[in-house]
Amino acid sequence: MKSVQEIVDLASAYYGSAVLFAAIDCDVFEKVEAGTLDTSCRGMRLLADACVAEGLLEKREGKYFNTQAGKMALIPGGPADLTKAIRYNRDVYPAWGKLAELAKTSRPVEKPEIHLGEDAARTKAFAASMFGRAMGIGKGIVPMLGGLSGKILDLAGGPGAYAILMCQANPSATCVTVDLKAIAAEAKGYVEKFGLGGRIECRAGDYHTDEYEQEAYDVVTIFGALHQESPEQIVDILKCANRALKPGGRLFVLDMMTDATHTAPKFSALFAVNMALTTENGWVFSDEELKGWMREAGFTPGETRPVPPPMPHWLVEAVK
């Protein structure tokens, strides 16, 4: 339960988000690290001081310095680079201003096609954001999968980050990653950049309607995709995955999930709103709901495992 002061603080919480988004767009953290940030302009000085107030920068004797966390996550190419992932949050920022419209109509306020092929620039930016986000998350997730070998089917594989990480960690594995045509084209570019074109096939398709080679795959992965589907669609997708797996094959589902109340963890409950704003069926389901759908599709689900911070994802493994 929030106090009056906390309610007041919440009303202006977006100030901090706006400061972070603007600082990344203006390359503030990169320029601070290089010693080239020019704060002679009033606007830039105000932004830099706001970054200090938010704990994103430090200021000593009139000079600005990156924090240790900033060096890791807010500079492109840093060891925990989150800049592309944060740009995704920036891109959906305007949609959150229309939340009342969603509440009144139950309809998304933005067409998902905008970032899935209809708008080339927005699609490319979305793919870059998702690639950076998935590379950051995936480094903690891939070790949780254990040793992988044989053929992997990566459904709704986005720009290919998870496929790249799985193949890098498992030299005997090959992967077919599937996504919509525009996203699959972006994935192909990333895969070739990492020199894995011979082991990863970037297939254009739609997991709502595709049928895959029956009992041809050792592993199926669905990472961060099912939160945009209705329960009926999720069951159909899981049944399709079951048909593609060899007997005894493994399914891994990674996603935002909640407890049975759909109100905790907090981030997952809020992310459900984010998905509803931008997709037709977007939400966040509970892990127990997912396990029920897995059983309906012919799987035996295992335990729910939390993913290492900072991302509040959960991983569920199931066996055919």
Major sheet = 7 strands, mixed
Number of discrete helical segments: 13
SSE ordering: HHHHEEHHHHEHEHEEHEHHEE
Q: What is the CA-atom radius of gyration, in angstroms?
A: 21 Å
Number of domains: 2
The name of the CATH superfamily of the largest domain reads Vaccinia Virus protein VP39
Strand content: 15-25%
Quick one: CATH class of the largest domain? Alpha Beta
Query: Average pLDDT across residues?
Result: 93
Q: Which fold name corresponds to the CATH topology of the largest domain?
A: Rossmann fold
Spans of 5+ residues with little confidence (pLDDT < 50)? none
Broad shape: globular
Task: Give keywords.
Arc Repressor Mutant, subunit A; 320 residues; 46% helix; two-stranded antiparallel ribbon; 13 helices; 2 domains; 18% strand; alpha/beta; Rossmann fold; 7-stranded mixed β-sheet
Describe the structure in your own words.
The structure is a single chain. The protein is of the alpha/beta class and 320 residues long. The chain has two domains: 4-76, Orthogonal Bundle (Arc Repressor Mutant, subunit A); 93-319, Vaccinia Virus protein VP39 (Rossmann fold), CATH 3.40.50. 46% of the residues lie in helices and 18% in strands. It has 13 helices and nine strands. The protein has helices spanning 4-11, 14-25, 28-34, 42-53, 68-73, 83-96, 99-105, 120-141, 161-169, 181-193, 231-244, 266-278, 287-296, and strands at 57-60, 63-66, 150-155, 173-179, 200-204, 217-223, 245-256, 300-306, 313-319. It has a seven-stranded mixed beta sheet with strand order 5-4-3-6-7-9-8, sandwiched between helices. A two-stranded antiparallel sheet has the order 1-2. Strand 6, helix 11 (231-244) and strand 7 (245-256) form a beta-alpha-beta unit. Helix 2 (14-25) crosses helix 4. The longest helix has 22 residues, at 120-141. It is globular and about 65 Å long.
